[in-house]
Amino acid sequence: MDLLTELLTTDFRPLDRKAADLYLAAVAQVKPDALARPTPCPDWTLHGLLRHQVSQDQGFAAAARGDGARLSHWHGGDLGDDPYAAAAASLDLVTEAFAATALDAGLVLPEVRDGGPFPAALAISFHFVDLVVHAWDVAATIGAPWEPGEELLTAALKVAAIVPTGADDRGPGTSFAPVVPSPDGASPQDRLLTLLGRSPSWNR
What single Pfam family name could you report for this chain, choosing any that match (predicted)? Predict the structure, then answer.
């Protein structure tokens, strides 16, 4: 079975919820005075990164309900005065929406290449890998541990392997920075980060 076929026939919903728990464990450690810090995502402070993930959760939830084409669904995230509560609420929202979606349904994702529709199984894998790597972004920003475990790493590496690497697909205004060279013998954690444009040695 080729990799794309494997992803299209995998139910990522349980993994997505585990990735949400990983992400929330990092967000739970964020103190108010850390929100202005830079993150491994050069376009965002920590506040901006957390707001971005809330927006993505709301956008994916809208897509699962058949209304993903409107960009306003993807840009309306609000942290209010409690970033953790906002993150938990948006993740509950998208988890519920994914649970009610058939894996072969078409989800429109306007910020991904031509917008789709993408099979729900694949779209959910995109949300999953974002959560895993954004958990690292948050953890690295605040100096907290990031321990996704073998199950999440193995699945995330498979999804990361299909992310396009062309000049039009990576860089400013796209989901990921260009691939970072990874030395032979790099750990699975480091290979995942470099595939998705992160430097494992990043520090603020």
Answer: MDMPI_N
Distance set, CA 28 to CA 52, 82, 88, 93, 198 (Å): 17, 10, 10, 18, 22
State how far the Cα of 71 lies from the Cα of 74, in Å rounded to an integer: 5
Average predicted confidence (pLDDT) for the chain: 91
Indicate if the pLDDT at residue 168 is higher than 80.
no
Evaluate whether residue 54 is within a structural domain.
yes
Domains identified in the chain, total number: 1
| Residue 37 resides in a domain | yes
Q: How far is CA 73 from CA 48, 54, 78, 101, in A?
A: 16, 10, 12, 18
Count how many Cα atoms sit within 13 Å of the Cα of residue 161 in the half-sphere of its side chain.
Answer: 12
> Is 87 inside a domain boundary?
yes
Instruction: Give one DSSP letter per residue of 87-113, joined into a string.
Output: HHHHHHHHHHHHHTS-TTSEE--TTST
pTM here is: 0.94
| Confidence category of residue 95, pLDDT binned at 50, 70, 90 | very high
